[in-house]
Specification:
15 helices
Length: about 425
């Protein structure tokens, strides 16, 4: 049985609702639409959109339940006579071919709660994609009042505000708290976007004599964030603790050596342990998994325990960087197709298989035109591969031909695209 899943459903400008699925999400988008229609009492036709973290929480058309996860937000879009779902042919094709697990939703398994407009706002959570435009937060009342007066003076006569230590500390603290909503370690380029956003919202804080106008703010913010790292380390934040000196290799105890930080797509890089869990409790579950994975019809148990031990497994990967062979011996269940997809989504919040296929479908026409223009021996091989596509209109065959054609186009052997390593 899947764990309970909670969704926030936006019905209108000032109307939203919470749905609790005790047995997990429905198996398809149509089933989800039916449940939303039944529980929310909607008579008219509608389509659903979901809040996509990959595109900075913009709403996208929902084409697969793989896009959803616990505490996701969906929005109801009514369909009038002139309105049609704005999904491309490739997205529709993707929906019909991506394999989804079928889960049933009984009549009594959905609990509906009405939320007020103030309660329905999502609380900020760490582990989100870095925004394209950094949002400067609201500072304390006195700081906002002083900045408002400074901005008025700047617009009237160009006078710049020189913040006193209290105001500067208040601004830096507010920026740090906004930063850690997304990540603990920030790149130099991201510091630049923060500085640009700060002087754009509060032009009175522009620094005179600075080429960028925020060089001093950038340096101060780096120092403030470094101090905050020390505070987080004392509180036991694992993402910071893995970079402490005691975790450095012997003879390489420089603070700047081997800093471990998430890549752009890694949202849940090194999550904290759930309350009440420890290395010992997780290790017991890991040992149980070694025997569970060998049992028949035991997929749901394995899935639940793999979900439970995610934080423990990520800490092992990030901190110990084990060899693949050793890691597979410890976590054999992770090397199944379903668990690879699930682990990828846990780390990036993005469904691996459906997202890959959707992007492949979007680019297929351009790739096919590129293949047709290629001549010589490689061109002949491409024509032979694409001939299978004309004989079979199946979407999976089309995708297979495009991938093989891309390998040939890049002078690679398609037979070596997927290779099983020798540890099995």
């Amino acid at each position: 049985m899947d764990p309970p899943t909670i969704l926030k459903v936006i019905l209108g400008d000032n109307s939203s609702q919470r749905l609790t699925f005790q047995n997990g999400l429905p198996g398809s988008v149509n089933e989800l639409v039916g449940e939303v229609q039944r529980q929310c009492g909607l008579d008219s036709d509608f389509r659903l959109q979901f809040m996509d973290a990959l595109f900075w929480n913009e709403f996208m058309n929902l084409t697969s339940v793989d896009e959803m996860q616990n505490r996701s937000t969906i929005r109801v879009i009514p369909l009038t006579g002139a309105s049609t779902p704005q999904s491309s042919t490739s997205a529709v094709s993707l929906c019909s071919h991506v394999t989804e697990e079928s889960t049933s939703v009984s009549d009594g398994c959905v609990d509906t709660d009405i939320l007020s407009s103030t309660e329905s706002s999502e609380s900020p959570s760490s582990g989100s994609f870095w925004p394209s435009i950094f949002h400067v937060p609201q500072f304390s009342y006195d700081a906002e009042l002083e900045l408002k007066q400074g901005n008025v003076a700047y617009r009237e006569n160009g006078t710049l505000l020189i913040p006193d230590p209290k105001l500067k500390s208040n601004i830096l603290e507010g920026l740090v708290q906004e930063i850690v909503r997304y990540k603990v370690y920030v790149t130099d380029k991201q510091f630049n976007t923060i500085g640009e956003a700060l002087i754009s919202k509060h032009p009175c804080l522009t620094e005179k004599g600075s080429l960028t106008g925020y060089a001093g703010w950038k340096a101060s913010l780096k120092n403030k964030l470094a101090i905050y790292h020390t505070h987080l380390r004392k509180l036991g934040c694992r993402e910071v603790m893995i970079n402490s000196l005691k975790h450095k290799p012997e003879g390489k105890t420089s603070p700047a050596f081997g800093i471990k930080r998430p890549r752009w797509s890694e949202v849940n890089y090194c999550p904290p342990y759930p309350t009440g869990e420890s290395d010992a409790s997780f290790e017991r579950v890991r040992v149980e998994l070694l025997s569970d994975v060998k049992k028949r019809n035991n997929r749901e148990v394995v899935k639940m325990k793999m979900e439970k031990t995610f934080a423990y497994r990520r800490y092992e990967v990030v901190c110990d960087t084990p060899m693949i062979k050793d890691f597979q011996a410890r976590w054999p269940a992770l090397f199944e197709t379903s668990e690879i997809n699930a682990e990828f989504k846990r780390i990036t919040t993005v469904p691996l298989q459906s997202r890959f296929f959707s992007q492949l479908d979007v680019l297929s026409d351009k790739l096919l035109k590129l293949f047709e223009k290629r001549g010589g021996q490689i061109g002949k091989q491409l024509q032979s591969i694409l001939a299978h596509m004309t004989q079979n209109e199946d979407t999976d065959v089309r995708r297979e031909c495009v991938i093989k054609g891309l390998c040939v186009y890049l002078n690679e052997d398609p037979e070596n695209l997927v290779r099983v390593h020798g540890w099995r």
